[in-house]
What does this fold into?
Amino acid sequence: MVSEATIDEICVVALAEAFRDDGEVLCNPMGPVPVLAGRLARATFAPDLMLTDTIAYAVQGNLPLGADGADAVVESYMPFRSIFDQVWSGKRHVVMGASQIDQYGNQNFAAIGPYRQPKAQLLGMRGAPGNLINHATSYWIPNQARTFVEQVDVVSGPGYNRVAALHPDSGRFHEIRRIVTDLGAYDFESADRTMRVRSLHPGVTLEQAQAASAFPLTVTDDPEVSRMPTDEELALIRDVFDPNGVRKGEFA
Amino acid sequence: MADKRMTEDEVVGELESGMTIGIGGWGSRRKPMSLVRAILRSDLTDLHIVSYGGPDVGILTAAGKCRKVTYGFVSLDSIALEPHFRSARQSGSLPDFLELDEGAFYLGLMAAAHRVPFYPTRAGLGSAMMTENPDLKTVTSPYGDGEELVAIPAFEMDAVLIHMNRADQRGNGQFLGPDLYFDDLFAMAGKKTYLSAERIVATEDFLAEGPVHTLRIPRIHVDGVIEAPLGAHFTECPPDYGRDEAFQREYAATARDEDLWKQFRTDWLDLESHEAYQAKLSERGQW
It folds into this structure.
């Protein structure tokens, strides 16, 4: 008898769902929960994904978090230069974090305060500008209340309103596929391309989700309840990918 | 047949204040640290550093050597934010900087290597990379619907410093680790390129060290070769050695305290030569 799924596992599965129907693309998740989601998706319903060991190799097999990949089967060579080439080819779906995100999906992990001399220098632009404008991007946000803001201080990853203001061809590859938080899953499948509630995690009400957002959440239908992990998924998460429970650290 | 061997201090003797200097490697990986320390102990100043930045950028900004840094990121990898660089950005002590999308940075190197003024890309459109850097221009495609693209300018560099696992005395370079990063483009893009290496070997011995695909720096782009065993320390240089994480943590902690930083400089960074640094490392053990 498998014990009941916990919130971290529900989030991993909600994020794994972002890769469903991706087919054969390079899946580049960053951080423990996104990496688990990518590996889980490939082990179950998205077997054609390619994943890297985060060094320079695309590897097969079900690697646990933190494993060095020395014994993994290498299927391709992916040094950093090749990763950028994959970005521009479009055959990639990345999961990034965010310190701030707004109603249109404008994301900031660059800096808090004025960009030229910030109060807090964060990661910087990193690859966000190129990722967003070239291929599918999803976000993992472990603390929605802190992150859903009215306005971001710096736009590292452009959202739908800023891309709409560009030349019509510029945005043709831009897609924010999914945002998964500690409270629910969101997308931009709304008429005005504002962030829409896709599902709420079990026990979370719309009022709670709205209270943890500085902008109005768009609701098109009665939001679904995020699906529970299957027994197979729970076994993979707990026994294969993350036996040490690294994922739980993101919910501290 | 040119023998291009020289010392770190001879390299610095060919550099001038105000120059734009490219530094190869990536984050805290295979950085030419013996050359970075030679710059640190010189009177060079007002430099413009171009780098996928790690402790090279952190050290030179903390020491006030930089007028400007052009970067894709500045990170110590196992420590996500380079703490000295972070301090410089937050205090405003770095006069100028250009932060580019990581991939766009690659195009600036490639444009310089290929001697074209720019390469076009979509990366940056709609983001603060464009709004915060009005000097970055766009171009209109002469084809199709006239799509607008970002023109990433060529990084013109007076000098470039890279570190390889092996080299010969004529300047051919060999990397033996998992990733070349962008060092071949750096080497091509520099008006002068200086290559330090863990070991200088006879040309005929290269293929005993690694397969032919590892011979990625041809000597036509190299002006000086410096033999520097442990020359990338404390950054990683596999398979010769991994990152010295304990040393890196010690370095990172000095960003919090001016006295600690001064002491660390005296103890490690300001030593008179790479030989002295190596001797001190071997006293410390493990190296």
Remarks:
- Chain B has a mean pLDDT of 97.
- The two ends of chain B are 35 Å apart (CA to CA).
- Residues 118-153 of chain B form one domain.
